Amino acid sequence: MVSISRRDLLRGLGAAFGALLTGKSLTRRASAEEGAKAGTFRFVHLTDIHVQPELKAAEGMAACLKHVAQLNPAPDFILTGGDLVMDALEQDVQRTTLLFKLFTRVLQDNTSLPVHHCIGNHDVFGWGKKHGVTPETPGYGKKMFCEVFGYEKTYYTFDHKGWRFFLLDSVQPSEKLLYEGGLDPEQWEWLEEQLQKKPAGMPGIIVSHIPFVTVTVLPDAVQDSQFRIGAGSLCTGAQKLSLLLSQHNVRLAISGHIHMVDEVEYRGVKYVCDGAVSGRWWKGANKGFPEGYGVFDLSPDGSVKYQYVTYGWQAAQT
Fold first, then answer.
1. What are the tens digits of pLDDT across the range 283-296?
2. Nearest CA among 144, 191, 136 for reference residue 168
3. Is residue 44 in some structural domain?
């Protein structure tokens, strides 16, 4: 197993020494240590799968899930980070239905873990309005995604072992583009309300497909002596979001979309832009970043360990 990892931040040492000085019994300290260990858990983040009948993509997705099944310790669940299929934006209803059926079949055949899905731009049906698709076509837009996975909305929360997860919809319509990154006003209001409701001592995690904060887009951003980042590459509202997260004990923000890997520490929040299960859309590594997925180990004290893990896939076409 090949991995790209970062050192953990050393946290909680002061609290540990303080406990030793309190004179509590060894039994109580042991009990606390057991409780902390019990509250530690792992999950995996599989993003930009881009499953399709071509390029052996379904076999690659299955290989990734089988690799996840061999992890030790085992993850508690899977987060998918969007762009599950390739491609709903500009396809007809028959092709899009086939893609989502393929995705769900491969998932069901290769994992028994709980799965929480985040929507990506390629999971939105018909915004390209090709092949006769119109807003009146059944499943148009984000409806098909919600119908396939049984969601009322494309953004939601869930709790797991003392952490709260916020899965966001970062794909918004655009007058000039097929889509742009960001949150609509209703979702901003919802997020602010949900963060206010979260217990102050409970650490939080934000998951979006399109990143709010990442350095992966910077190397190609200078064009004609101008600094330009496309609206489809990065979410608007990054300053607003970063301030909001820093005020509400959010420790981690995970994204995908760029098919590259980085970590940024900003205002006390770790932003991870994760690499793609599909690499360069099932045609090998993307700019040196091979096919892989993220492994996250979380502790009750709010500390996070991340590593990007490859699963040995050999592309059918490069």
1. 999 999 999 999 99
2. 191
3. yes
